[in-house]
Design a protein that fits this description.
Elements (H helix, E strand, L loop, with lengths): L1 E4 L2 E4 L3 H12 L4 E4 L4 H6 L5 E3 H9 L4 H6 L1 E3 L1 E6 L2 E6 H5 L4 E3 L2 H14 L3 E3 L3 E6 L7 E6 L2 E6 L2 E4 L7 H4 L6 E16 L9 E3 L6 E5 L5 E7 L10 H12 L11 E15 L2 E2 L2 E3 L5 E2 L7 H22 L3 H4 L1 H23 L7 H16 L1 H12 L7
Parallel strand pairs: 1-12, 2-3, 2-13, 3-9, 6-15, 13-20
Antiparallel strand pairs: 4-8, 5-8, 6-7, 10-11, 11-12, 14-17, 14-18, 15-16, 16-17, 18-21, 19-20
Helix pairs in contact: 1-6, 1-9, 9-11, 12-13
The structure holds flavin-adenine dinucleotide and 3,4-dihydroxybenzoic acid (DHB).
Flavin-adenine dinucleotide (FAD) binds next to helix 1 and helix 9.
Length: about 400
């Protein structure tokens, strides 16, 4: 068995793991990131695309914002469309100048990998059989295999940044964590299309046939979603049928949806999920390993980044002063934000989707809610301030 040592062992090279590793590096703290997929796979995975202002500011401060600032699309509002009419929520006016940036998660991951490697950082891809152990002692270890050889990484702390299906959360002994969960009776069918976006800003649409979302990746590439069954069979959806359904749901007077070749398509199930606490001994869970939000609020990636900012601050305090005071508050500080973001994501999801068990009362109530949100300044402000991202709170 080959032995290695670092200060912080990080499992998972998604946004949470890579941002944490780079933040620690900037504070002079060593880490090793262990990822069970290839670098190409993690850099090509099609996922989120909306960055809160705070996420953009952090990436910029970390020195990984150059391409993001050049290629990202800055938006100062979204449209809510219902009964065939669009209503703009003006973020700039409602939040005192804040906006969001459209920049694909895959590009964020690429920029972070480049930055880690340029700084001599250690990110090991294609590792197998990762096993965090002894994290209830002051000498945790992560055992794993690579190219058939067995390794043991000794570290001071383990960061479980390995997503919802990762190994860190299930490694915590039974009975420690409490899980809070809600599944939704629908999913999203998403496409990436070689079609210039038909609107300048994102369009969230409520329709009798179900929710639809018009988003984008660049000024040439569209990203669109349709509410579907949670286990929708993609083979039943030809490209032509997808465009037909998007045309129908997004239709609005005097507006045209431009079609183009479908480059990629997939179905995502939707759930709300939180574990409490987000820490056990010297193992800290961050990002999707600790919580999942339904995608309607565009929050998953941003919440993962918020967690690791808190974790990096706690670890920095430990290495600079020896105090674990802030680390001991990690879970409590993160969960305050997690639950607010859960609430917002649940609310956006509930307002905009058709529920299979719904009835005419619920549908009229949803339309009244959309009418209220788009006609009351205080109601629009609550949407805007959550969408652009709540401020970080450190206690
Ligand atoms: P992840 O990005 O999941 O990273 C975890 C990493 O750990 C992965 O690279 C994984 O390969 C690795 N890993 C897992 N298990 C192990 C192991 N045992 N050993 C080593 N490494 C391991 N959010 C939105 O806001 N909008 C969207 O449209 C959207 N679409 C999504 C579509 C899909 C299919 C998925 C799964 C998520 C989507 N999300 C979306 C959510 C968003 O992408 C996540 O919230 C975000 O990726 C969280 O980052 P993370 O670093 O916590 O986890
Ligand atoms: C995108 C994803 C979301 O979940 C969302 O709410 C808005 C945009 C996107 O992939 O572009």
């Amino acid at each position: 068995m080959q032995k290695l040592r670092t200060q912080v062992g990080i499992v998972g090279a998604g946004p949470a793991g890579l941002v944490l590793s780079h933040l620690l590096h900037l504070e002079g703290i060593d880490s090793i990131v262990l990822e069970n997929r290839s670098r190409q796979y993690v850099q090509e995975r099609v996922r989120a695309g909306v960055l809160e202002q705070g996420t953009v500011d952090l990436l910029t401060q970390m020195g990984v914002g150059d391409r993001l600032r050049k290629e990202g699309l800055v938006h100062y509002g979204i449209e809510l469309r219902f009964r065939g009419r669009g209503h703009r929520i003006d973020f700039r006016e409602l939040t005192g100048g804040k906006g969001i940036t459209i920049y694909a998660q895959a590009e964020v991951v690429k920029d972070l990998n480049d930055a880690r490697i340029a700084a001599g950082g250690q990110v090991f891809f294609d590792v197998e059989d990762v096993r965090p152990c002894d994290f209830d002692t002051s000498e945790p270890k992560i055992r794993y295999q690579k190219d058939g050889d067995e390794y043991e990484l000794a570290c001071d702390f383990v960061a479980g940044c390995d997503g919802f299906h990762g190994i860190c959360r299930p490694s915590i002994p039974a009975g420690v964590l409490t899980e809070y969960e809600r599944e939704y009776p629908f999913g999203w069918l998403g496409i990436l299309a070689d079609a210039a976006p038909s609107a300048e800003e994102l369009v969230y649409c409520y329709h009798d046939h179900g929710f639809a979302l018009l988003s984008m990746r660049t000024s040439q590439i569209g990203r669109l979603y349709l509410q579907c069954k949670p286990d929708e069979d993609l083979t039943q959806w030809s490209d032509e049928k997808i465009w037909q359904e998007l045309q129908l749901r997004l239709a609005s007077d005097g507006w045209k949806l431009t079609e183009g070749p479908v480059l990629q398509k997939g179905v995502t199930g939707m759930r709300s999920f939180v574990v409490e606490p987000m820490q056990y001994g010297r193992l800290f869970l961050a990002g999707d390993s600790a919580h999942i939000v339904p995608p309607t609020g565009a929050k998953g990636l941003n919440l993962a980044v918020a967690d690791v900012q808190v974790l990096a601050r706690g670890l920095t305090q430990f290495y600079k002063t020896g105090s674990q005071d802030f680390l001991n508050q990690y879970s409590q500080v993160c969960l305050r934000r997690v639950w607010k973001v859960q609430r917002f994501s649940w609310w956006m999801t509930s307002m905009l989707h058709r529920f299979p068990e719904g009835n005419p009362f619920d549908e009229r109530r949803q339309l009244a809610e959309l009418d209220y949100v788009t006609s009351s300044r205080p109601a629009a402000t609550t949407l805007a301030e959550n969408y652009v991202g709540l401020p970080m709170e450190w206690s």
